[in-house]
Amino acid sequence: MRLHAIDLPNRRYSNGWNWIRRSRELNLSLFYRLRQGLSGLRPVLPPTLDSDLRAALTPDQISAFKRLTAYDQLHLLRVYRFTRVSDPTNTNLHQAALLHDLGKAALGGRVRLINRAANVLLAKVTPRLNKHLARLPASRWRLGLALALHHPELGAAWAEELGCSERCVWLIRHHADNPAPDDLDLLLLIHADRSV
């Protein structure tokens, strides 16, 4: 009897199974990104945004949060609400949830929809070119792409300037790590970031 790829989860897929699996993963990823992009065309911020922000952030942190695009603000609010339900007393995690994409508004720039799409596409098709185009310092036309790639480090530095705790800064710095360090708070933040 011959074993099929589905019977061997920890081994390499053979007889075309690897291609099928990778194709399915790519299709799911592209579908998710398409849905994410379309929802970002007209984001609507909830009326409770300011009260949620006042509950978790200082006035300076709120001011920095408001520099982000409406799409990013809505995403961060969803991540915050997810982490608040999952772990109601973890203030470092809540602050990191609201500020983990702060680097997308650093250096006087913003990450726009076209930058997000280019970053995802280039990272899948040609990662070396993506890293080359996103290198810092970035010219004006490459700034959005550079911020998309380097936002964890830039956001962590900015959060530190804004008085966030060392733990919160660490969570922000590592929220895009792949693979992620074995830390429950970080894993929850990454799961929320990728789910909502």
Tell me what you see in this structure.
It is a single chain. This protein has ten helices and no strands. It is mainly alpha-helical. It folds into two domains: 32 residues; 150 residues, no CATH class.
> How do the SSEs run, as a string of H and E?
HHHHHHHHHH
For the sheet with most strands, the description reads:
none
Residue share in helices? 55-70%
Measure the end-to-end span. 43 Å
Query: What integer value in Å does the Rg equal?
Result: 18 Å
- What low-confidence regions span 5 or more consecutive residues with pLDDT below 50? 1-15
- Mean of residue pLDDT? 85
Overview features:
2 domains; 196 residues; 63% helix; globular; mainly alpha; disordered N terminus
Spell out the blueprint of helices and strands:
Elements: H1 17-39, H2 49-56, H3 59-65, H4 70-86, H5 91-99, H6 113-125, H7 127-133, H8 143-161, H9 166-174, H10 184-195
Q: What can be said about this structure in brief?
A:
The protein is mostly helical. About 65% of the residues lie in helices and about 0% in strands.
